[in-house]
TrEMBL record:
PANTHER family: BETA-LACTAMASE-RELATED. Keywords: Carboxypeptidase, Hydrolase, Protease, Signal. It comes from the Bacteria. InterPro entries: Beta-lactam-related, Beta-lactam/transpept-like, Diverse_Enzym_Activities. One of its GO terms (molecular function) is serine-type D-Ala-D-Ala carboxypeptidase activity. It comes from Streptomyces formicae. Residues 1-32 form the signal peptide. Pfam families: Beta-lactamase. Residues 48-347 form the Beta-lactamase-related domain. The keyword Mitochondrion does not apply. It is an enzyme of class 3 (hydrolase). This is D-alanyl-D-alanine carboxypeptidase.
Length: 392
């Protein structure tokens, strides 16, 4: 069989503007036998893959779950809940922050509202949120469309990064990572982006910006009259039986139940626990969902199989936008499937989900860290092969 490339996600894997992820698999033809669904051996190989990933410098703990046609085929947990081997193991079915994987969920809700006629993809930001014009918070808001924000081609600068990095490298957050209590409104985050230069003409240049999705979350609330959390529950979490998934919106919201704690180096380089990461600094629509391997796999399965959106609207998210040179990498897999990768990161953790183009296979993983996300180099392809082609 010929090798098939694993398509990069629509947006970069990160709530921050860049994550160092190594996901290149070994070369050679994809000759693996079909995955043996639900066997003891498969469950063991997933666990072994998690144990290998936990040995990567900077990783405190890792959990993962693999699914085929909605059936669990393997889970794993390695490392520890807390730094220095403390706190015991992380439950393999624990909740974790999915960070920028939130964006695809928010985009799906936006497009479901479009399907119902409550919103248009070419509606203008200035018409939908007049306050951003009245307060001069977004330049050219009267030209920017919903479609452009969905596809990161609006030119609106990112509120997250202290200094923008067009090459996609590590950036420091524009806020105090260790402020766990100050509540910020989405409009406050949009305000932070105002002094920064636009990244291009509306609709012409792709440039990842959390501000796009902070604004889209606000638009959902304005159009429906309901909170973003309510609309996510109504359109996605409820129908897909994502019973352990929720949107965190304000401090001191935290992850419920036993879970892995993430850490971030302070000014002296000492890792500090950021498990209570300020929920309002996730920008709501940009990265505030907490989920599980089971639930996030259920969403990606339904999305890939076209059960959430009609084809013409789904293509708005899946057709590749223009990307600046150097930001797209070709990565190869040996399992015979064409995988997409969606992910996210912020201080304390990285979350990744691999899913096959036909929606039959998903592998969701969460890594808690003791370093900045860019300092953890993760080869996740081995884990995917352990789950889906263990004899390769």
């Amino acid at each position: 069989m010929p090798r098939k490339s694993m398509r990069p996600p629509l947006g970069r894997a990160g709530l921050a503007a860049g994550v160092a992820l190594l996901m290149t698999a070994q070369g050679g033809p994809a000759t693996a036998a079909p995955a043996r669904v639900g066997t003891v051996q498969e469950a063991m190989t997933v666990q072994e893959a998690m144990e290998e990933l936990a040995e990567v410098p900077g990783i405190v703990g890792v959990v993962g779950g693999a699914y085929v046609d909605g059936r669990l085929v393997g889970t794993g947990s390695a490392g520890s809940r807390l730094l220095d081997g403390k706190g015991g193991k992380i439950p393999a079915d624990s909740r974790f922050r999915i960070w920028s994987q939130t964006k695809q969920m928010v985009a799906t809700v936006v497009l479901r509202l479009v399907e119902k006629g409550e919103l248009g993809v070419d509606d203008k930001l200035g018409d939908l949120l007049p306050e951003v014009v009245e307060k001069d918070l977004v330049t050219r808001a009267d030209e920017i469309t919903v479609r452009q924000m969905l596809r990161h081609t609006s030119g609106i600068p990112d509120w997250y990064a202290d200094e923008p990095n067009p090459d996609g490298g590590e950036v420091d957050p524009a806020f105090d990572v260790f402020d766990f209590t100050t509540p910020y409104r989405p409009l406050d985050l949009v305000t932070w982006s105002r002094a920064r230069p636009r990244t291009g003409e509306p609709g012409e240049t792709w440039s990842y910006s959390n501000t796009n999705y902070t604004l889209l979350g606000m638009i959902i609330e304005r159009v429906t009259g309901h909170t973003l959390a309510t609309e996510l529950q109504r359109h996605l979490f409820g129908p897909l039986k994502m019973t352990r998934t929720s949107l965190m919106v304000k401090p001191p919201d935290g992850v419920k139940g036993p879970h892995g704690h993430g850490y971030y180096p302070d000014a002296d380089g000492t890792p500090r626990d950021v498990d209570r990461f300020n929920a309002s600094l996730a920008g709501a629509g940009a990265g505030a969902v907490v989920s599980t391997a089971h639930d996030v796999s259920a969403f990606n399965r339904a999305f890939a199989q076209g059960k959430l959106l009609p084809p013409e609207l789904q293509r708005i998210l899946t057709d590749r936008p223009p990307v600046a040179p150097g930001l797209r990498a070709e990565v190869r897999g040996r399992c015979g499937d064409d995988f997409s990768i969606t992910g996210g990161s912020a201080p304390g953790s990285i979350a990744l989900t691999f899913y096959s183009a036909d929606g039959r296979r998903q592998f969701a993983m969460s890594f808690t860290l003791s370093v900045k996300p860019s300092a953890a180099t993760i080869d996740a392809s081995k884990a995917v092969e352990a789950a889906f082609c263990p004899s390769s």
